[in-house]
Amino acid sequence: AADAATRRIPFFLLTGGPTEIPALVRRLGASALVADFSPLRPVREALDAVVGALCRDAASVTVHQVDAHNVVPVWAASGKLEYSAKTFRSKMNKVLDEYLVEFPELGEVVPWDREQPKDIDWDTLIDTVCSQAEDVPEIDWCEPGEAAAMEALLGTKDGFLTKRIKSYDSDRNYPTKPMALSGLSPYLHFGHISAQRCALEAKKRRHLSPKSVDAFLEELIIRRELADNFCYYQPHYDSVAGAWEWARKTLKDHAADKREHIYT
Q1: Are strands 62-66 and 32-36 parallel, antiparallel or unpaired?
Q2: Where does the UniProt annotation place the signal sequence (predicted)?
Q3: Has residue 82 been placed in a domain?
Q4: Would you say residue 249 lies in a domain?
Q5: Structural domain of residue 244, as residue ranges?
Q6: Which of 8, 135, 228, 253 is deepest in the core (most CB within 10 A)?
Q7: What is the CATH number of the domain that holds 158?
């Protein structure tokens, strides 16, 4: 909100369900609505509800969906459910250079002369959200926001690319070595930083630790977007029924195996 204000972009914060969005579109007389992308069912259903409500209006509103969640848009990466990282990687590598580019500078913003957004009472809003989930403890290891995300990525004290990247390739799969991980997942998930920004910054520093940077880009782009491919093209992505047959068979065959370590 603060960044939008410095660029003279009005920031409207809505609370409630998807039906609040068409009401705002009507009130502002908007001619276009731009939505971010998520492959998950609740988000897709919410967007369908918004589009359905707008389609019932007499006024024409164009709806665009932009996959800022990924580096390569999910529909551009592949048009079908991919079987493995190997098949997916070859498709991604053909188009990655087209999409993995620096973001363009934001041009001059047309002055806003419509309804002005109300001041946001962040304290009350946070208290309301917390009261709805009183049994969920607040975390203390992760500060929210874009600035905190950039600090986690490039910070001079404990930044992933600046201080910890060298051990990523060798230690990232050891649960007893959490500092080998990037710690960027919550920032990526909630949109406080983009995978594209992380990838661009990592490529700039590849000469410092080629194997670790390559491993990070594999996880950040190929493996992460393969997961989105699965969720987008597999309607049963959140059920064992959606797993490949070989995966279900492997789970069944080894269900009773004794394991040296059990993690929860």
Answers
A1: parallel
A2: none
A3: no
A4: yes
A5: 138-256
A6: 228
A7: 1.25.40.80
Query: What is the pTM (predicted TM-score) of this model?
Result: 0.90
Query: Residue 264 above 80 pLDDT?
Result: no
Q: Judge contact between 254 and 103, C-beta under 8 A.
A: no
Distance from C-alpha of 150 to C-alpha of 192, rounded to nearest angstrom: 9
Answer whether residue 179 is part of any domain.
yes
Distance, CA of 181 to CA of 161 (rounded, Å) = 11
Domain count, the chain: 1
In order, the DSSP letters of 173-224 are T-TT-GGGS---HHHHHTTSS-HHHHHHHHHHTGGG-HHHHHHHHIIIIIIH
pLDDT at 173 over 80: yes
* Confidence bin at 133 (pLDDT 50/70/90): confident
pLDDT at position 253 over 90: yes
Residue with structure tokens 């999910």?
74
Dihedral, 109, 9, 30, 111 alpha carbons, nearest 10: -40
> CA-CA distance, 28 to 13, in Å (whole number)?
14
What is the C-alpha separation between 244 and 76, in angstroms, rounded? 23
